[in-house]
Specification:
It contains 10 helices and 10 strands. By secondary structure, it is α/β, with parallel strands linked by helices. It has 2 domains: about 150 residues, 3-Layer(aba) Sandwich (Rossmann fold), CATH 3.40.50.1980; about 120 residues, Rossmann fold. It has a 4-stranded parallel beta sheet with strand order 2-1-3-4, with helices on both faces. The termini are far apart.
Length: about 300
């Protein structure tokens, strides 16, 4: 006859073992931090199920004007590795890292890339928006892979395989971008945007982007700047203006009203959209933007 006390004791033991194992299972994923949503998506694609990604500047957030909170410092302190863009994009990051007391390695995803310059207030500065070129995004993915390999050697095979698969998707994406641009008449490949974030895209794919604001959304366009942009649109017959998800739409609306240029819709520059808004991943963002550009400029 089976001793009921034995059965009960065994059952309790199993339950206790499961309870003790549950936190361990929950902690198996490597806690990592990415500075902003676009980079967070790249990290998630490479890290896969082995990582838990915390993104500091979320969907539709402005990385230029972001103000970190104490909770962000806690995330940095708990992370095993921190990924940032570099090129001066996260001016707030060094202070946040210092305040957190973090010892985790910092990986700059733009390492090895050649930066471009842009003008702000009459001076040349580094343009941080390297991800707008898909070729640059591929290098960023490789840097992310190397950073994860270094901190978690046991996961190297997984990270390498994930990176290879994702790079193949980026190869296909870039071919689609080039094909879409080829369908736009060369004389119409000129666009006004509300924020100067598409310099790398323009150089990579043969388009001209003009912005009434400087590199940072902290910079307000003066009346003189707006008047100059309006004159240029009229003189050069620039066909379309675009608003961005992180910028004030009123300025672009005013420029469109005064020039007759077509408003091509909203494009995504420094941040992804929310998942249900059409640009919730890096690949979706690029596809959304090129569809908007081609739709406004092809005819």
């Amino acid at each position: 006859m089976i001793d009921r006390r034995y059965v009960i004791t065994s059952a309790i033991g199993i339950l206790l073992s499961a309870a003790l194992a549950a936190p361990a299972l929950a902690q198996e994923k490597l806690p990592v931090v990415a500075s902003f949503s676009i980079l967070g998506d790249l990290v998630a694609n490479v890290g896969g199920d082995r990582v838990a990604v915390t993104t500091l500047v979320g969907p539709n957030g402005d990385g230029h004007t972001f103000q970190p909170s104490p909770a962000d410092a806690k995330h940095i302190a708990a992370a095993k590795v921190v990924f940032m863009n570099g090129f001066g994009f996260e001016g707030w990051m060094p202070r946040l890292i210092k305040a957190s007391g973090a010892k985790a390695p910092i990986v700059e995803s733009t390492k090895g890339l050649t930066s471009q310059t842009m003008e702000e207030d009459g001076r040349k500065i580094t343009d941080p928006h390297a991800w707008q070129s898909v070729a640059n995004a591929k290098v960023m993915v490789q840097n992310i892979r190397d950073g994860l390999d270094a901190i978690d050697p046991d996961g190297k095979a997984t990270y390498d395989a994930n990176a290879t698969a994702y790079l193949e998707k980026l190869d296909a994406l870039e071919q689609d971008v080039k094909a879409a641009i080829a369908g736009i008449p060369p004389e119409r490949r000129r666009i006004i945007t509300s924020h100067d974030a598409f310099g790398y895209f323009g150089r990579a794919y043969g388009m001209e982007f003009i912005a009434p604001q400087g590199v940072s959304t902290e910079t307000e366009a003066s009346a003189k700047d707006v008047a100059r942009i309006i004159r240029q649109i009229k003189a050069e017959k620039i066909p379309a203006v675009f608003m961005e998800n992180i910028s004030d739409t009123r300025l672009v609306q005013r420029i469109a009203d005064e020039t007759g240029a077509k408003i091509g819709g909203t494009v995504f520059s420094d941040a992804l959209s929310k998942p249900d808004e059409g640009a919730g991943t890096y690949i979706d963002m690029i596809r959304h933007n090129i569809k908007a550009f081609a739709g406004a400029l092809s005819s």
